[in-house]
Write a structure and sequence with these properties.
Elements: H1 10-29, H2 31-36, E1 41-47, H3 54-73, E2 85-91, H4 96-109, E3 113-116, H5 120-131, E4 137-139, E5 155-157, H6 162-179, E6 186-192, H7 195-207, E7 214-221, H8 229-238, E8 242-246, H9 249-261, E9 268-272, H10 280-285, H11 287-290, E10 294-297, H12 305-316, H13 324-342, H14 347-355, E11 371-372, E12 375-376, E13 382-387, E14 390-395
Parallel strand pairs: 1-2, 1-3, 3-4, 4-5, 6-7, 6-8, 8-9, 9-10
Antiparallel strand pairs: 10-13, 11-12, 13-14
């Protein structure tokens, strides 16, 4: 049998070896090549960028991208020889099932941690899926307290849950009402019928009567909704002093515009964790419907110089400002701080660093981070109000840059 494999001649063989040796020497002599070969730290960014929640997912992604660029431009993770953070993006497609599938993919990609989720059902499912792999999961927005009440060691929420938000919302509403001479006595609650809205409405319906408010009715609506006429008509019939909505962006925009068109004018719209009242798109596109709307929600600390820098970066990217941006920016910075302190890509070490975190290089109105059972106990919401086409902070006074306007009508 003839051997068809070619045999190198002695000269050819030596030339091949010489070329290999020269190439190896070039690599050793090139610091740039060495730097390029420094392994990255893969970070999973999970956001719903298709489906009903796509707008919010886009804001979340942008906030994460701004933070990743800032960290990498500043030299990356110094305890890992300047390793860069590499984003591995996953689309949660606005539903928990898709989010779970994406977590499986991110785990397969070898990410060191996951940040995001936005909606409570997505965060609940995604963090549970991540726990199977001891994969650190940082919740950006999801406010359901179920997320951090399951004893999952891998799950951390930088922002407040709806228990904390409800307490702050009721406390500040009482202050607001008393300062104005107690003009508001009756309330209608309007909420999306999912995990976030239903849980929040139940808490509000329990707490408000303790402070002298009569809850006339609690009205649920689906997400997405294409028509809020029936909800508005019911509000008109009940004629409450206050409307307290807890909904995602599209549904509240519909409700506010419908109330405006039907000339329904309560003494105040006092939203809690509302998807539109803390979003400049709503303010810019529908200024008349937005004017004087209040919200108790996530928001950046307007006193911090870094807040202005992040706002500029978002504007330069062609985006309006919404609370998802500073929250995700801060969550990615929290993760980078944990990786820096862990000096490792190892998930267990990152979880340990997060558990013991005292991170404070965020742009939220919080103090240093302290996690108890995965919840940052230093987190809290603020109250905002749309005034003159701008979103101002009205409570607490230590963060406020405006006084509240209430009641809106006599």
């Amino acid at each position: 049998m003839t051997n068809k494999t070619p045999i190198l001649s002695g000269d050819a063989d030596r030339r091949t070896i010489l070329k290999g040796a020269l190439a190896g020497a070039a690599i050793i002599a090139s610091p740039a090549v060495l730097r390029a070969q420094t392994p990255t730290v893969k970070v999973g960014i999970l956001q719903p960028v298709t489906g009903a929640l796509a707008q919010d997912g886009g804001f979340g992604r942008l906030g994460a991208e701004i933070a990743l660029k800032e960290i990498n431009d500043a030299g990356g993770i110094k305890s890992l020889s300047g390793a860069k953070l590499e984003m591995v993006f996953a689309d949660a497609r606005s539903n928990p099932e898709a989010a779970t599938q994406e977590v499986e993919k991110l785990n397969g990609e070898g990410v060191a941690a996951i940040v995001g989720g936005f909606a409570s059902p997505i965060c609940l499912a995604a963090s549970q899926a991540a726990s199977r792999y001891d994969l650190p999961y940082i919740v950006d927005v999801g406010v359901s307290d179920q997320i951090v009440n399951r004893g999952l060691k891998n799950t951390f929420r930088l922002g407040p849950g709806f228990g904390t938000v409800t307490t702050a919302a009721v406390t500040n509403l009482v202050k607001l009402n008393e300062a104005a001479g107690k003009p508001a006595k009756t309330v209608v609650l309007v909420h999306e019928d999912g995990l976030f809205g239903s849980g929040l409405a139940k808490l509000m319906a329990t707490e408000l009567p303790k402070h002298g408010f009569e809850v006339l009715e609690t009205i649920a609506h689906p997400t997405p909704s294409r028509d809020m006429s029936n909800v508005a008509l019911r509000i008109r019939a009940l004629n409450p002093d206050l409307v307290i909505p807890s909904s995602y962006y599209g549904e509240f925009v519909l409700l506010a515009r419908t109330m405006q068109q039907q000339r329904i004018r309560p003494k105040g719209i006092y939203a809690v964790l509302n998807g539109a009242a803390s979003n400049f798109r709503f303010v810019k596109e529908f200024p008349d419907a937005a004017e004087n709307v209040m919200d108790c929600n996530h928001w950046h600390d307007p006193r911090k110089a870094k807040s202005a820098a992040v706002m500029k970066a978002a504007a330069d990217a062609g985006s309006v400002w919404a609370y998802n941006i500073p929250l995700n920016y801060s969550c990615v910075k929290l993760l980078a701080d944990a990786v820096e302190k862990a000096a490792s890509r190892d998930r267990a070490k990152i979880i340990e660093a997060l558990t013991n975190s005292t991170f404070e290089d965020h742009i939220m109105p919080y103090g240093p981070t302290k996690f108890v059972n995965g919840q940052n106990t230093g987190a809290g919401p603020v109250n905002t109000q749309v005034q003159g086409g701008d979103i101002k902070v009205i409570f607490p006074e230590s963060f406020a840059n405006a006084k509240p306007v209430f009641p809106v009508r006599a």
